[in-house]
Amino acid sequence: MAEDSWPAPTHxxxxxxxxxxxxxxxxxxxxxxxxxxxxxxxxxxxxxxMQVKIRADRRAQIxxxxxxxxxxxxxxxxxxxxxxxxxxxxxxxxxxxxTWTVRVFVINGTPGAGAPAYLSDVGTTGSWDMPLALxxxxxxxxxxxxxxxxxxxxxxxxxxGVQCRAATRPPAALVSIGTHAIETxxxxxxxxxxxxxxxxVPQPVEVFQGANDSSGSVxxxxxxxxxxxxxxxxxxxxxVTFSGLxxxxxxxxxxxxxxxxxxTGGTVGSGTVVQxxxxxxAIVYTAASSIAGFxxxxxxxxxxxxxxTAGSTYNAKTFFRTTNADSSAAVDxxxxxxxxVPW
Length: 343
Hints:
By secondary structure, the chain is mainly β. It has two domains: about 10-200; about 205-340, Jelly Rolls (Sandwich), CATH 2.60.120. The protein is built from one helix and 25 strands. A hairpin with a 4-residue loop joins strand 7 and strand 8 (about 100-105). The mean pLDDT is about 95.
């Protein structure tokens, strides 16, 4: 097939098809509502029956196609639910490539099964949906109230990105890599990474464990669980700081170590080990006193952890051990701080 480009006098006499127009206008752009998150919700219920309403004089850009809601309020019917279980319906703005029109469409859910999926076809056929709202339809409902409708739409920003609230940031699959989003209610900025949204200015995470734990184990043990999950920033690097009271009841020369373990995933103590608890990355207390009972020091240790996958979730957990089983190591008032390095 020969090369082609459009619009051009040599291509359809300067005209473009609907398919070609979508390709032309969608490249490098985002779909969304026109306005900003301070606007009243586009989709709403008002206890006027089994229906939701679409506010007048609202606009959107959906994959290069402009949508206008009309000069007066439009209603969309919500089907009855007599299943015995609650049903969740999804309201979307749908680009239907069989007609090349954009219209508000209600996707009926399955009772008891959560919200139905939206369509995201990007070829020359099928449909592409922008989620607008979730509608809760209780069993035997006779009307849709304001509380039954949860808005889920987002708005276009002047910089070509997205403006939204924390609860309405678009699914990452519906925007291109590199798209920026700002949450107007949290003032946090995100960028769409290779697989998901990444916080552009990630926040530190700190956890505290006040339990006084002791153990005679010569292997690292966690005691009362002390840890946190965190998301790797765009740089793939975080500073890890752990601190607390570290001590021993030894009456001869013995060491007590407190260290930290890093794993993949959001469940503390689970996942693949990224960095094991280790004596070379630890607070060390050396007991050199003949006085009975536990003796403590207060100390901290900070290090740079690199090589993380940006946007992925990890977890950190503190551990401690003694060097000899004839005495016990002890920890108290443990703190763990994860500080992302933004870029």
